[in-house]
TrEMBL record:
GO cellular component, one term: cytoplasm
Protein name in UniProt: FAD-binding oxidoreductase
Taxonomic lineage: Bacteria, Pseudomonadati, Pseudomonadota, Gammaproteobacteria, Oceanospirillales
Keywords tagged on the record: Oxidoreductase
Domain named FAD dependent oxidoreductase: residues: 30-378
GO MF entries: oxidoreductase activity
Length: 423
């Protein structure tokens, strides 16, 4: 059973979820979507809008997976450097995907406006902040590649970055004004409400136990109900459980945990992220930080939650922001990221009419929203294909070993952090 969502700041501060019920009895639809995160909900919203009858079946609550647990950085593009993307999937496919995701924040903030989604949305940009020489070199490379493709990014000097972040520990930052921050669970719940308004049917606490061929399509079964449809989309990413468990073998699950402080004082907020950008750093074992609407510092790092992470986070925050002499944490929660072998999301057609979308590798707010919309366009004949790769993923070799390697590596890094000065 995956970790509950109840310890998260996002669950404590999100507007109420729409009231749904369990799937019971028999239903027929054009499309069944398994999983109520950004991908499934955006797909349902757009499919319903384009006239398809669609049912979303979620095992737990809406946003239970990565969508309700993430940092909330609504970024353009993918993690991968743009030139690397071209190398990985070829120039033409690379450019198509790059272009589709360059405008991903426009789609996210467009839906937020259109459906009046209350999700603490700010669009003040994000900062990819560099540590050390290699971090700076990485940002210079990224800046050059993104600027060459016309992205309006700015490479900030050390003093600019330090003033924007409120910390002297960074030697530069890549500012992307297209991006922003959201309250991710609130966005997921808002997408669910919007999908209901468009006529989609949504069911929560209904784990799909079995999917089997049925006449020309598929029969999706839960304990108390079933839906028949010609098309099924598995949008379960890192949280693939029960009847879709085998999907989990296609990627390595990596934990990322976050802590949220008590609201900071006005004096502290005057120097820490005064423009409210979201930040992540260039360290191999990455960390991220941002503010929420109540002025809490939300700080995250790779690895599962526990004393090692909490001690490291308290220490690191003190180093970054001396004005926070002693930080008190109110919330701590963790989430699972689905790392695919090529670090790209894939839409696989597992069998005729049975699709799976997975492998966002930690960048799923914009991509999940866009892929959901593209799926709806594809299924209604408005496009010939998706922007993300549609190749089949193999099961990751030595998956469990890799998972343990990343987890132990993150914990060891956090334990040894004091010994290695960050600057
Ligand atoms: C800690 C963390 C931080 C992140 N930070 C960012 C960030 O700042 N910016 C960004 O862009 N991305 C970020 N990501 C990535 C992003 O959150 C994910 O890529 C995205 O949420 C994936 O959405 P999804 O809809 O595909 O899957 P999910 O949101 O994981 O949804 C899958 C759903 O499927 C359901 N499910 C599973 N099995 C079944 C079943 N048998 N029957 C029915 N339902 C089932 C699960 O309960 C779950 O709700 C982060 C991820 C994590 C974990």
């Amino acid at each position: 059973m995956p970790e509950p969502l109840c310890d998260s700041l996002w669950r404590a501060s999100a507007p109420a979820a729409p009231s749904l019920s369990k799937l019971e009895g028999r239903l027929v639809a054009d499309v069944v979507i398994v999983g109520g995160g950004f991908t499934g909900l955006s797909a349902a919203l757009h499919m319903a809008k384009f006239g398809l009858s669609v049912a979303v079946v979620e095992a737990q609550e809406i946003g239970f997976g990565g969508s309700g647990r993430n940092v909330g950085l609504a970024n353009a593009g993918l993690w991968m450097e743009p030139d690397q993307l071209d190398k990985t999937i070829g120039l033409e496919a690379g450019r198509t995907l790059y272009d589709a995701l360059a405008v991903a924040p426009d789609y996210v903030y467009g839906l937020i406006d259109e459906y009046a989604i209350e999700c603490e949305a700010t669009r003040h940009g994000t900062l990819h902040a560099s540590v050390g020489k290699s971090g700076l070199a990485q940002l210079e490379r990224r800046y050059e590649q993104m600027a060459r493709r016309g992205a309006p990014v700015q490479l900030l000097s050390a003093s600019e970055a330090q003033a924007r972040i409120g910390s002297e520990k960074f030697n530069s930052a890549l500012f992307d004004p297209r991006a922003g921050t959201i309250q991710p669970l609130a966005y997921a719940r808002g997408l669910a409400k919007a999908a209901l308004e468009e006529g989609a049917k949504l069911f929560d606490y209904s784990p799909v136990e079995n999917i089997s061929p049925y006449e020309e399509g598929w029969l999706v079964k839960t304990q108390q109900g079933e839906v028949r449809a010609p098309k099924v989309v598995l949008a379960t990413n890192a949280y693939s459980e029960q009847g879709v468990k085998e999907q989990a073998r296609k990627f390595v699950p990596i934990f990322y945990s976050q802590l949220a402080s008590k609201p900071l004082s006005d004096a502290q907020l005057a120097s820490i992220l005064p423009n409210k950008e979201g930040v992540w750093d260039t360290c191999t074992v990455m960390s991220s930080f941002r503010l929420d609407q109540q002025g809490r510092l939300v700080f995250g790092g790779m690895g599962g939650k526990g004393d090692v992470l909490a001690n490291w986070a308290s220490q690191r925050v003190k180093e970054l922001f001396p004005v926070l002499n002693k930080v008190e944490w109110d919330y701590c929660w963790t989430g699972k990221i689905a790392y695919s072998e090529d670090h790209l999301p894939h839409c696989q057609q597992l069998q005729n009419g049975l699709f799976s979308v997975a492998g966002y590798s930690g960048r799923g707010i914009g991509p999940g929203t866009v892929v959901g919309m593209e799926l709806a366009q594809w299924f209604t004949g408005q496009r010939d294909n998706l922007s993300i790769p549609t190749t089949l993923l193999r099961d990751v070799p030595f998956r469990e070993l890799k998972r343990v390697f990343y987890e132990v590596g993150a914990q060891a890094y956090h334990l040894g952090q004091k010994a290695h000065a960050l600057d």
